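Subject: two folds for Thursday's group meeting

Dear M.,

Sorry for the delay on this. The cluster queue was jammed most of the week, so I only got both jobs back this morning. I'm pasting them in the order they finished. Each block is the input sequence followed by the predicted structure tokens. Could you check whether the formatting survives your parser before we put anything on slides? The first protein is the one we discussed after the seminar.
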Amino acid sequence: MKNQEDFIICRCENIHMSEMEEILQQGADNARELKLKSRAGMGFCASRTCGPFIESLTQDRDETPSYINLKSQPPIRTISMADFIKEDFHD
């Protein structure tokens, strides 16, 4: 049960601090593991809002981290809807 001091870490996935603390107590020691076990940072914003806070929980800001950080990646190439449809409805 969530208490008044608990707060939401990831708004996209509705993950609370109490859930993150529980995962940390179970042995998670880097941001990648926290994200995989909680789904925090895997929502619509792709960790833009909660990512820095999640990384600060585990202090994994090394210059050469031993993990692969889960970051958002843009599409290879953008495409317009007109190009995407490419269908003539005027037969």
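Second protein, same layout:
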Amino acid sequence: MESKIEVISTVKIQHSVDLYKVVDALNRTLKEKDLMFGLALDQEDKNKAIFTIYRT
């Protein structure tokens, strides 16, 4: 069975210590809608985070 993940949107935002809580809440709430959310620290600017929305 092949799983295909599609990137819907990516945005660079100001990093915040509680930002992961928002991503966690979105993932828990919208997983049945085939949506997944990711958060990564920007490698070039540690004060920025990259927020990504995926369709699974």
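Two things I noticed about the second structure. Residues 35 and 55 are 5 Å apart (CA to CA). The beta strands are 6-14, 35-41, 48-55.

Cheers,
T.
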